[in-house]
Structures are given as C-alpha cells and as structure tokens.
Amino acid sequence: MFVKPCHGIVTSLYSNSRLDPVEKEVVRPHWGMDYGTHSDNTIAAAASGTIRFIDNTKNGKTGFGKYVVITHSNGWETLYAHLSSITVKVGQNVGQGQKIGVKGTTGNSTGIHLHFEISKGRWTNQYTHHVNPALYIDDPDVRHLQQMLNVLGYKVTVDGLYGNEVVKVVAAYQKANKLVADGVAGRVTMAAVEKSFASVAKPTPPPKKEEIRLFKPSSPTLNTSMIDKIEKATKDKVLQDPKWLAQAKAGTLSLDDALALSVYIDGNK
Ligand SMILES: [Zn+2]
Predict the structure, then answer these.
(1) What residue spans define the domains of the chain?
(2) What separation in Å is there between the alpha carbon of 228 and the centre of ligand 1?
(3) DSSP assignment letter at 97
(4) How far is the CA of 26 from the centre of ligand 1 (A)?
(5) Which of 245, 246, 244, 252 is nearest to 216 (CA)?
(6) Ligand 1 center to residue 49 CA distance, Å?
(7) Ligand 1 center–CA 80 separation, angstroms
(8) For the domain 1-137, what is the CATH code?
C-alpha cells in the first residue's frame, strides 16, 4: 500500500531505544525512520489520501519542524517531518507519489533528512498505533543493498524491506569490516558495501589465450630444410596429415609442433 516517500538511503531505523542525535546521551524511542539527503529531495505521499494536518512553523514545540500528516484508506496515517517547505494544504486530496513538500532540517534535526512515520490508525505523538515503516516500504535502495550483500556471501532475502534479518546481516558485515555494528546501512556502511561489491563483482576477463610461438628459424636455409624434411616425410607417409606441410610452407607452424615433428620424423624414418 505504501511506497517510499522520497529518494535517499535509510539513515536511522525505527527503534524502541535510540541514542538521541540532538540531545546526546539521551536514549528514547524513534518511532519512524529517517531517509538522508539526496540530489532530489522531493517528498511525495506514500499512499493516496487527504492532507489532515500541517504544521508550517519552523520551530514548533513538537520537534518535528514543518510537518505533514496524511490520512489514507482504512484510517492509516503517515507523517513527514523536518520539511524545508510544504506544497499542499489541509483538506487537499493527494495521489500516491504526489509531491507534498521538500526535505529539510527544521525542528530537532542535525541535518537534511526526512523523518517518516506510519500509524495504523489516527496519528498522534502518543504513538499508540505506530508500526515500523521499514516493514511496509519496498525500498529500491534496500533491494540494491540486499543484492550486494548476497553477492558478498551474506544470505539475505531480497525484498526491499529493512527488517530484522537485514539489521542482523548489516551488523555482521559491519563487524567483519570494523565499522560501528549498529545494523544501519548509513552513508559509511553503504560506501563500504559498494566498495566490497565492486571489488568482487568485476566481470571476469576471458582467459588469456596461451601464446603460440611460431617456428621462426634464424636463417632461410634452416626453414627450407625443415620444409623439405616435412615434405619428404609426408610423401613417404611417415606423416599422414597434409596440414603439417601446409603450415610449414605458410609459416604458421608452431615452434612446439616443429620440434615434435622433427623428433617424430627422425624416429620413424
Ligand atoms: Zn527520525
């Protein structure tokens, strides 16, 4: 039902206890997920619905900065926070993927990102109906991550959902690569995974053909005597295959074959 509301990688996951990035050393729940900044910071409705609430004050008391709440079918609601601008009005109907604003860093925020929440029922900041958005969004960036991890030997389902399986696998990758093992594939981890992937995913070059050294005698006399030798052996049926003589005359006889033929002819005269 929901699609990813913006471009950008996951920089923070839904969690019951997260170290607050603004009030450091304070652990509190993070009832949504964060998507980092991107060259295209358009925010779009995750599903069709009606704009129920807008806070257009830059530094409102909620900490969400400028934010939008949309009501969808069956009473589901989504929240989009820390926007730099809002381009819809309360009561307006929006289609899935329709622009509602632009990603920003208003409110309690340490950098440009979208804080996104899904509520299975009316959204309030009491978080009674909240669900983990990562389990509802098939994220193409997460699919890409899952595909790369599989190539790197970490077995993980490729479904675009950033569930516990992905968290565990990412943490394992991080641990193996001496990164902070928090299970979140943020910028540093993504860059590391891309690098590991690039190093193993290089197309294997076709095997080099073994170089064939041709029989190139240092004097024309030696060449003539070799041709004569092969010609005579062919005539005498010591050599059955006429290709040797043809190759010797064309100058395409390999050095190895020339040596072998010489020994063979001498031994079978
Ligand atoms: Zn957040």
Answers:
(1) 1-137, 138-201, 220-268
(2) 87
(3) T
(4) 15
(5) 252
(6) 22
(7) 10
(8) 2.70.70.10
Predicted local distance difference test score (pLDDT) of residue 188:
95
Residues 159-180 have a mean pLDDT of 96
Q: Which residues contact 255 (CB under 8 A, 6 or more apart)?
A: 213, 214, 215, 216
- Residue-wise pLDDT for 203-224, tens only, equals 777 777 777 888 888 888 888 8
Look at 2-6, 56-60, 156-160, 234-238 and tell me which has the smallest mean pLDDT. 56-60
Q: Tell me the CA–centroid distance for residue 235 and ligand 1, in Å.
A: 89
- Between the CA of 197 and the centroid of ligand 1 the distance, in Å, is 29
The CATH architecture assigned to 138-201 reads Orthogonal Bundle (1.10)
Contact 82, 115 (CB under 8 A): yes
3-state class (DSSP) for residue 114: strand
- On average, the pLDDT of the chain sits at 92
How far does the centroid of ligand 1 lie from the alpha carbon of residue 29, in Å? 10
Q: Among residues 126, 132, 118, which one has the least CA distance to residue 75?
A: 118
215 is written with which tokens?
Answer: 């029989």
- How many whole angstroms from 158 Cα to the centroid of ligand 1? 25
- Rounded Cα distance between 211 and 204, Å, is 19
Q: What is the 3-state secondary structure (H, E, C) of 60-94?
A: CCCCCCEEEEEECHHHCEEEEEEECEECCCCCCEE
List helix spans (H) across the chain. Answer: 140-151, 164-176, 187-200, 220-235, 243-250, 255-268
